[in-house]
Design goal:
Largest sheet of chain A: 6 strands, mixed
Number of strands of chain B: 2
Largest sheet of chain B: 2 strands, antiparallel
Structural class of chain A: alpha/beta
Low-confidence stretches of chain B: none
CATH architecture of the largest domain in chain A: 3-Layer(aba) Sandwich
Strand content of chain A: 25-35%
Order of helices and strands of chain B: HEEHHHHHHHH
CATH topology of the largest domain in chain A: Rossmann fold
Low-confidence stretches of chain A: none
Strand order of the largest sheet of chain B: 1-2
Structural class of chain B: mainly alpha
CATH superfamily of the largest domain in chain A: P-loop containing nucleotide triphosphate hydrolases
Number of strands of chain A: 14
Mean pLDDT of chain A: 90
Order of helices and strands of chain A: EEEHEEHEHHHEHEHEEHEHEEEH
Oligomer: heterodimer
Strand order of the largest sheet of chain A: 6-7-8-3-9-10
Distance between the termini of chain A: 39 Å
Helix content of chain A: 25-40%
CATH class of the largest domain in chain A: Alpha Beta
Helix content of chain B: over 70%
């Protein structure tokens, strides 16, 4: 296997008019990894994904996918990578099996292997018994599974999942997580963007937190959490005046806080040990805490 | 999950990819062929009865043909235009802006040039069927045509490709469905009327006649008349063929450029 990373972005800039959607972005995804691109809407995740498929062309910087420099090598890169878009673009004029078949042809899967590839796709999508159903009659979860199967039909080395579970029921989301874990286990490199923290924590061994078009922190989720928000968080609920009081007190003790709705979270709460705090609940810190600390913004 | 097959050489323009785009259209057509067939049978019947019998009673002869013969070939040309230009325009817009189909296809190793070529080629093939059906209706109405009519499908393909690409080019510039009115009023209506389809160009004001002579539909209908009733001579015929080929190239290049600009940031 070639030593080049699956994805390499160096100092990449992509502007839309006066707005830099991607602003001097650096990113490296090693082969075999499950990498999560985390950030709120508008952080530049989707633009980054489009840069990797040649559907957006960078104004500056280097973009490489599986060793192919883009945009020049975009066609070669697309032949060995698969895309699962955020916006559902299944072909509603075709059936389930036709969607996979047409895509296999566009990907130029050799004729002798095409039927087997389509069959595998139906199995991945758990839609074997609905092979001849018009795509327009599928439920949201089925459509999403078919989108994933379509992105894998040619056996890519890298799969780009753009917000794979956005807008789906929790139950369907769990099922898709299992599918993504399977893809990963089969040796395919996964780069997924998400604004669901839990998704990134569960599935990814590396995450990069994006804010305003650039990466503000990256690493394994656990290390990022330990490094940036400590081992424990104290979450206090109460009226606005109580919350304000907690904030003042915590800051006096040199601790950072984050307010979300009716609660305030005190970070690095392990340092409070021995001190008397009237109320509140201790919990494990999450990537969401990391995110808020880094960007000062809430997700979703 | 990676397959064992060696990587396929990736050329810039791959006929197999154009074939895959055409195949996709064929799969859809297998289910919806009836509406195409119905339209291409009923529309000429309406034209033949209305214009053929209605106008035919007033006008005895046009350009050496009976009016019925003249308008019958005009009807084939109009069928070719509507059945190629409208899908190019409407699909071009809906698949880009509403269905996001092109986004999905371009994520595979597919270029805009292949995409436009595939869809235009398909519309060209489809209108060749429309043209043959219309020809059948003309025979049923008693129009006497020579053996040259075997060339009608070929004329339909080389006209339909460019007309479909023209629709795709305009579709790339549309920002909403409202823009379609501009294309219908400003492009399609004059193209269909000022072409020598239902009446000859000679009687028009000089400027309208000039417009008519550069109208690709004019070259299409003249070739159809040549095929049905005898070609006017090699020079004149080659002029029409050449004009259609140039039109195909220009329309395809324009569509590729505009669609690429609309789809790739």
């Amino acid at each position: 296997m070639s030593p080049s990373p699956a994805v390499l972005l160096r100092d990449v800039v992509k502007r839309f008019g006066a707005i830099a959607a991607v602003d001097h972005l650096d990113l490296e995804v090693s082969r075999g990894a499950c990498f999560g691109l985390l950030g709120p809407n508008g952080a530049g995740k989707s633009t980054t994904m489009r840069l990797l498929t040649g559907q957006a062309v960078a104004d500056a910087g280097t973009v490489e996918v599986l060793g192919y420099g883009l945009p020049h090598g975009s066609r070669q890169a697309r032949a060995v990578s698969g895309v699962v878009p955020q916006i559902d673009n299944l072909d509603d004029e075709l059936t389930v099996v036709e969607n996979l078949d047409v895509y296999a042809r566009l990907q130029r899967v050799p004729r002798a292997e095409r039927d087997a590839a389509v069959r595998r796709g139906l199995e991945t999508a758990l839609l074997v018994d609905r092979a001849h159903t018009p795509t327009s009659e599928l439920s949201g979860g089925m459509r999403r599974r078919l989108l994933i199967a379509r992105g894998l039909v040619h056996g890519p080395e890298l799969v780009l999942l753009d917000e794979p579970t956005v807008g789906l029921d929790p139950q369907i989301r769990q099922q898709l997580w299992a599918t993504i874990a399977d893809i990963r286990a089969s040796g395919v490199t996964v780069l997924m963007s998400t604004h669901y923290i839990e998704e990134a924590e569960r599935l990814c061994d590396q995450v990069a937190i994006m804010h305003a078009g650039r990466v503000v922190a990256s690493g394994p989720p656990k290390e990022l959490i330990a490094e940036l928000v400590g081992r424990e968080v104290l979450e206090v609920a109460g009226t606005p005046s109580v919350l304000a009081e907690v904030e003042v007190e915590a800051r006096a003790g040199g601790l950072r806080t984050r307010r979300s709705g009716t609660t305030v979270a005190v970070l690095d709460a392990e340092r409070l040990d021995g001190q008397a705090w009237a109320q509140g609940e201790r919990r494990a810190p999450t990537l969401e805490d990391v995110f808020v600390v880094l960007t000062g913004e809430e997700l979703a | 999950m990676s397959t064992a097959s060696p990587p396929i050489a990736q050329r810039r323009f791959e006929p197999a990819v154009v074939g895959a785009i055409v195949y996709r259209e064929w799969r859809v057509f297998r289910r919806v062929w009836f509406s195409t067939a119905f339209g291409s049978i009923v529309e000429p019947i309406v034209f033949f009865i209305g214009f053929g019998f209605g106008f035919g009673a007033l006008i005895s002869e046009v350009a050496g043909l009976s009016y019925f013969e003249f308008m019958a070939t005009g009807t084939i040309a109009i069928g070719i235009m509507f059945s190629a230009l409208f899908p190019g325009l409407i699909n071009g817009y809906a698949r880009r802006k509403e269905k996001h189909l092109y986004d999905g296809q371009l994520a595979a190793p597919v270029s805009v040039a292949e995409l436009v070529a595939g869809e235009s080629l398909w519309n060209g093939l489809r209108v060749s069927v429309v043209a043959v059906v219309t020809l059948g209706v003309a025979f049923a109405f008693g129009v006497q045509m020579g053996p040259g009519v075997v060339l009608v499908p070929v004329i339909a393909v080389i006209s339909g490709f460019g007309l479909s690409a023209t629709g795709a080019a305009f579709a790339a510039k549309l920002r909403s469905w409202h823009g379609i009115d501009i294309v219908i009023g400003g492009i399609i209506a004059p193209m269909f009327v000022v072409a020598g389809t239902f009446f000859p160009l000679d009687g028009l004001p000089w400027w309208a006649e000039m417009v008519g002579r550069i109208n690709p539909l004019h070259h299409c209908v003249e070739l159809l008349r040549g095929a049905a009733f005898g070609f006017p001579g090699l020079g004149q015929t080659m002029l029409h063929v050449g004009a259609l080929l140039v039109f195909n190239l220009v329309a395809w290049f324009a569509a590729v450029r505009l669609v690429r600009r609309a789809l790739i940031d």
